[in-house]
What we know:
Largest interface: A-B, 47 and 47 residues
CATH superfamily of the largest domain in chain A: Aldolase class I
InterPro entries (chains A, B): Aldolase_TIM (IPR013785), NMO (IPR004136)
Number of helices of chain A: 14
Number of domains of chain A: 2
CATH topology of the largest domain in chain A: TIM Barrel
CATH architecture of the largest domain in chain A: Alpha-Beta Barrel
Order of helices and strands of chain A: HEHEHEHHHEHEHEEHEHEHEEHHH
Keywords (chains A, B): Flavoprotein, FMN, Monooxygenase, Oxidoreductase
Strand content of chain A: 5-15%
Structural class of chain A: alpha/beta
GO molecular function (chains A, B): monooxygenase activity
Protein name (chains A, B): Nitronate monooxygenase family protein
Largest sheet of chain A: 8 strands, parallel, barrel
Shape of chain A: globular
Oligomer: homodimer
Organism (chains A, B): Skermania pinensis
Number of strands of chain A: 11
Amino acid sequence: MRTTASDRLGIEYPIFGFTPSEDVAAAISRAGGLGVLGCVRFNDPAELDRVLSWMDDNTDGKPYGVDIVMPAKVPTEGSQLDLESMIPAEHRAFVDRTLAELGVPPLAADAEQAAGVLGWLHSVARSHVDVALQHRISLIANALGSPPVDVIDRAHRDQVPVAALAGAVGHARSHIADGVDIVIAQGHEAGGHTGEIGSMVLVPEIVDAVGDDGLVLAAGGIGSGRQIAAALALGASGVWMGSYWLTTSEYRLGSAAGGLSSTQRALLAATSADTVRTRIYSGKPARLLKTKWTQAWAQPDAPDPLPMPLQNILVSEAHRRIAESADPEVVAMPVGQIVGRMNEVRPVADVMADLVAEFDATVDRIGAVRT
Amino acid sequence: MRTTASDRLGIEYPIFGFTPSEDVAAAISRAGGLGVLGCVRFNDPAELDRVLSWMDDNTDGKPYGVDIVMPAKVPTEGSQLDLESMIPAEHRAFVDRTLAELGVPPLAADAEQAAGVLGWLHSVARSHVDVALQHRISLIANALGSPPVDVIDRAHRDQVPVAALAGAVGHARSHIADGVDIVIAQGHEAGGHTGEIGSMVLVPEIVDAVGDDGLVLAAGGIGSGRQIAAALALGASGVWMGSYWLTTSEYRLGSAAGGLSSTQRALLAATSADTVRTRIYSGKPARLLKTKWTQAWAQPDAPDPLPMPLQNILVSEAHRRIAESADPEVVAMPVGQIVGRMNEVRPVADVMADLVAEFDATVDRIGAVRT
């Protein structure tokens, strides 16, 4: 399975695996794909630095990348205290009331003071770039489109290509104009921040718009070799998969005891119909697992979500409380419609081997249709 | 491009073309696909009978099919007068006010009394089946899922296979249990009545659920050979295309003078982002071209759409007025996200030739990736 994207990145398969887990990211790279570590959860650049050093040591010398969250337009910035003061009391009251109604206990009295997820802030995302460029990374991807041009230039000085997610043709064109090397065409099916156009329509549109000015990866709805073959048929040079790794054996985030987390149990049970696209996670539309938490926000009495980054600050303690309450019916987790195919826990290497084998079988199958 | 579906139906290419235009349907069949004539617009069975006789004579002896609209659950039934009386005055007032605001003139004083579209009624859809089975049809498809079992049995007695659209795996399973032969997996991208799951996820899910118990066609977002190759990679045995034929040279519905209709001009100008999924057309969620008409119904002061079949009766005169006003900014037309690729008017035969050539080129391209 060789494409321009796999050749350019020096990887065996053009399978890019986005994940917040360094264990999973390293396993993806070791298995021949490109593991891309999500940085948004690292409030402390020193912690990211330690984790990337671990990645350097645990990827058998193979390439890996990082993913940052940097909105194209600089959003509200400020200290934690400034931002907290911008959150309306009505919103806080709704969150408190909802958590009580859903039976989510408060944090333990001795719990560390929650800092919220500050990776949404431009200043913090920039610190992620600074730290990442001190490691042997092969890609910087931005989950919210084109990063500022000076960040792109900085990466290029270190020969690091830049990727940016796009949910519409116009975004893809402006990413390329800004100097982005790889456009990730992300269909409506995808988990996390996502647009309205389905992968079947979006991918060839973006491939045609980008032409020879960059590479295109397909994201949204991909978790099998058939889907990888479909993405390549649509013209993509590779695939970007995020959700599918959440139920691999190496994924241990949110699991205190080492067993399955409540989030993983909820993901394993969900069908493709059990997701919803909503602004409640970050302030921008993102696809999440549909649970009692997302349903509460869909009630007529729920307030409208706040803009980024305020919404994430508003719900950040709620996310911690939900995670610790370990109730699979009350989960706050971005995931795509491919969740319907996430029905067992397997090692990353096994998942990769199956993807490649099914891709090959699919190509053979449709080759027979052609004749 | 031979598959089980094309062999079973006796057609050259597994490309099923749904269209309300007999000229287009016949041209699709003549070009090697299966033209499928939409019957919902025929209130008078005798008119459908005449049109199908024309199809018999103008398809070079090649197979064609029909598409009916028969909800699985029998909806509100009754005479035109009964049904009219169930429409709230508030809804009528909103439609009148909106048309006035959008500058849509009333019908000419001598216009025929509008009967509304009665094809939504079970009794009328049954008359379509009765008439169609007296012609040499090769397929009965139902746009709203499984038709009643006695209708399926009736078709099977005449060796006519039955197809049903499905937007979710559960629907596909129940269609097969009812005796349906061909499941059309219709993704969120599609025009007309459509569900929430994107084609990339839905098609392989339905293929796996149906297994050897039936054939699966992919619908939603298909208008190029790359997209056909993607659909076959996902496991479909063929494709079901509807929107894409609306801008072929043979499509003349709604065009009084023989030139482009206002609807066609609007479709040619639209991008993939210019559609919306709404209940305003029939009472069930359907994807339409986004225009001033759909936007008016999305305003906070707009009433909720009525259930099927009342909503269509409510808006049926509005649809006639809109069609006659010929303003491309005020159009009421089902279409999928593929509208972004509908940018020129071409004969059906040319469209088919391009689909097949691009399919072959795509299979060759991804064959090279495999090695």
